[in-house]
Write a structure and sequence with these properties.
Alpha-Beta Plaits, single chain, alpha/beta, Rossmann fold
Length: 734
């Protein structure tokens, strides 16, 4: 039967679904899945008043589009290429015959996919029915062909290349993608254009309101027809996306593949890296693998760890009277079923979450689990995926708009910026500012979104100038977000509060390092009243596990550790509040002074290159030590600067070295022997910069210093002769 009028919608995002059923005359056709038609599209109040008869008219016109595609063609091509080649040729010929007979225009054919325009909706329906009947009557042999078809009617315009343009084409493609093989899907817009004469042996069935979401295969219900590929028809509580998913194609593919291979995959990462969004996107693409549903269990609101299992049971709708353990309910609900559970935000209930996961995996062999946390669950068989920050614009002096938009962080910033400030445009003039914001925020998605929200009151350049004060700046989160996701400080507070006292102390102290550090450096700097040197490694391992510290392999020979700048700034504030900042800085300085002095003594030896590489790796820490000591301990600052002069000279850091040495010379508390070495280095480097007169003045003072009794030792005289010779030489060392 067919409805005489198009149904009305109750929500603008939901659209009427219509089932188009074709009766089979032959027994062979009766064995095939029945044809169905469904759609998701805006409803119309009445049939279109004007029906154009010419498909190639120049003005905007209302046409009906038929999109077709062979379901599951890729594996057939992979396994049976010869049979598939012959089957595709026959498929194409049958479709072309049906299209031409009904007056259609196949304006685009890509492989086995046809895009056809009709001036009459009736003609489009007849062509679809004719084609499906002809296809189902074939004996396909080794390459069974099942074609899915989608119909939608709407206004379009003809472009200069004679290809139609407009959203109606995209909607027709989405309708087709929601179908199964042997199925015809029609939108309410197309149904409204039909007259009451349908093809013999066919009928329309109204399937109600659906939202086109996801293209995965749906679960099979107890019905003559399997559900179509829309969110309402699939068994899942995954929330629909309200914003676009930017970038991370590689990460999404890796998580999806890991979930196929492993029954337990845990996404770990620091706060704000987008673990939840990535997990939801991956889960939504895995719906076709799980006939009994994909279920999101939100653990963030769970404050009592003992309630983890109850939260899972409640999500599944598993309830029972009496004192039945939640795990028993979960097992009873999912026994014999193939389902995916997404446990989100496990970190604050990590122990109970791990126990529940282990129990579920052991009792229910067909259930898979995807989890998000700031540390691993530690369950047997667990696969771990560390969610990285977004890729960032290249660290170059001249960033272009193309560089920014090509990076994930830049693309996210621009998209979110346009959402809150529609007039925002990425240009060559503001590209550098956007790049700085993305880099200074470590490519953390939540931080970038909070920064983009500030464009309602600040320009990109103003934002870039203020971004280092991130904890005051980034406070404009959504009112509907979790409290810890409304400000950057609240986000880091959440992670910090979950640490033990030893872990908090270690994290605070690690803030004195800049750029990165070795385990040896951490053991020397962090060991103190609270932590023994032998315990430092244990705490570092826990901080890495909790995604607050990054561990990076350097040439497979050494592990270096690094704090994200956001975490480092937060921990630095905590270190100052604790009153331990000065002592931590002194230990940091002492370690790197010793390192620089050992390197200085070795740069004329056989391991010079290794020492130069090590100083390169620690350059940021050496700069930090110089910055702190220039005010706190000027004499020690001069010692460190003097120890680095060969490194600056060999590696070509002439300007930086000269600036540092010149500043050290302004102190009146430097011992003569140290001052002599600083003078020699300053003279050499300023000569490299071609400041001849200044170099002569400095080296003249050096000669006077050499004549003092304290500088007449053989080693001092030798050093003076060598440095004076360097100062008079124009050649460069490399």
């Amino acid at each position: 039967m067919i409805s005489s009028q198009a149904p009305s919608t109750t929500r603008p995002s939901l659209h009427s679904l219509w089932n188009f059923i074709i009766a089979r005359a032959a027994a062979k056709l009766a064995k095939s899945a029945a044809f169905r038609s469904v759609l998701v599209c805006r409803r119309i109040a009445a049939p279109f008043a004007n029906r154009l008869t010419k498909v190639n008219a120049a003005s905007p016109q209302t046409l009906t589009f038929l999109f077709t595609d062979i379901e599951g063609s890729t594996p057939l091509w992979d396994t049976r290429p010869a049979a598939m080649r012959a089957a595709t040729e026959r498929h194409n010929a049958l479709l072309r015959e049906a299209i031409v007979t009904r007056g259609g225009n196949a304006f685009r054919v890509v492989g086995d996919a046809f895009c056809v325009a009709f001036s009459e909706a009736n003609s489009a329906i007849l062509a679809a029915v004719d084609a499906q009947r002809a296809l189902c009557a074939q004996a396909w042999g080794d390459a069974p062909i099942h074609v899915r078809m989608g119909l939608h009617s709407g206004a379009v315009e003809m472009a200069e290349d004679e290809i139609f343009r407009g959203p109606s084409l995209a909607r027709a493609a989405r309708v087709m993608s929601a179908a199964h093989g042997d199925q015809i899907l029609a939108t309410a817009a197309t149904v409204a254009l039909l007259d009451r004469q349908l093809p013999a042996g066919s009928a329309l069935r109204d399937l109600g309101n659906h939202t086109l979401r996801g293209f995965a295969r749906a679960e099979r219900l107890r019905s003559e027809f399997p559900p179509i590929h829309t969110q309402e028809a699939l068994r899942t509580n995954l929330p629909p996306a309200l914003t676009s998913f930017v970038g991370r194609a590689s990460a999404l593919a890796q998580v999806r593949e890991a979930a196929r291979k492993s029954r337990l995959v845990t996404l770990i990462g620091s706060g704000g890296t987008g673990k939840t969004r990535l997990a939801i996107e991956a889960a939504s693409e895995l719906i076709g693998m799980f006939d009994d549903g994909v279920w999101l269990v939100e653990l963030a609101p769970v404050t009592d760890a003992a309630l983890v299992s109850l939260a899972i049971a409640s999500t599944l709708g598993a309830r029972a009277e009496g004192d039945v353990p939640p795990l028993t309910l979960i097992e009873a609900t999912l026994r014999g079923k193939r389902a995916l559970l997404l446990l989100d935000n496990c970190e604050h209930v990590i122990d109970e979450a791990a126990k529940a996961v282990q129990a579920i995996l052991r009792a229910l062999p067909q259930v898979h689990i995807l989890a998000t946390s700031r540390e691993v669950l530690g369950v047997e068989g667990e696969s771990v995926y560390r969610v990285p920050s977004l890729t960032m614009p290249p660290a170059e002096e001249a960033e272009t708009a193309a560089d920014i938009i090509a990076s994930e962080a830049g693309a996210l910033f621009v998209e979110r910026a346009r959402a809150v400030a529609p007039t925002f445009v990425l240009t060559e003039s503001n590209a550098a500012a956007v790049a700085r914001v993305c880099r200074r925020l470590d490519g953390i998605p939540l931080a970038i979104e909070l920064a983009a929200a500030r464009l309602t009151a600040l320009s990109a350049d103003e934002l870039a100038r203020r971004v280092d004060d991130r904890f005051r700046l980034l406070t404009g989160g959504l009112r509907t977000a979790l409290p810890r996701q409304r400000t950057l400080r609240a986000l880091v507070d959440w992670s910090y509060d979950l640490l033990s006292p030893d872990e908090q102390t270690m994290l605070n102290t690690l803030a004195v390092f800049a750029g990165g550090f070795s385990l040896d450096a951490a053991e020397r700097v962090c060991a103190g009243d609270v932590l023994r040197e032998t315990a430092v490694l244990d705490v570092i391992e826990r901080l890495v596990a909790k995604s607050l510290l990054l561990a990076e392999q350097q040439h497979e020979t050494e592990t270096r550790y690094r704090l994200l700048e956001t975490i480092r700034q937060y921990a630095g504030e905590k270190l100052v509040e604790s009153g331990q900042a000065d002592s931590a800085r002194r230990r940091h300085f002492a370690f790197f002074l010793e390192l620089a002095q050992r390197a200085s003594e070795s740069l004329d030896g056989p391991f010079a290159l290794e020492w130069l590489d090590r100083l390169d790796a620690e350059h940021d820490n050496l700069r930090g030590a110089l910055d702190w000591s220039s005010d706190a301990a000027p004499a020690d600052c001069a010692r460190l600067a003097g120890a680095l002069l060969d490194f600056w000279d060999i590696r070509g850091h002439f300007s930086e070295g000269w600036t540092r040495l010149e500043r050290a010379l302004t102190s009146r508390t430097i011992p003569d022997e140290v001052r002599l070495k600083v003078l020699i280095g300053a003279g050499a480097l300023v000569y490299r910069l071609d400041y001849r007169q200044r170099s002569e003045d400095i080296l003249g003072e050096t000669i006077l210093k050499r004549r003092t009794p304290s500088n007449r030792s053989p080693s001092a005289l030798s050093t003076s002769r060598d440095r004076a010779a360097i100062g008079r030489t124009k050649g460069s060392r490399c």
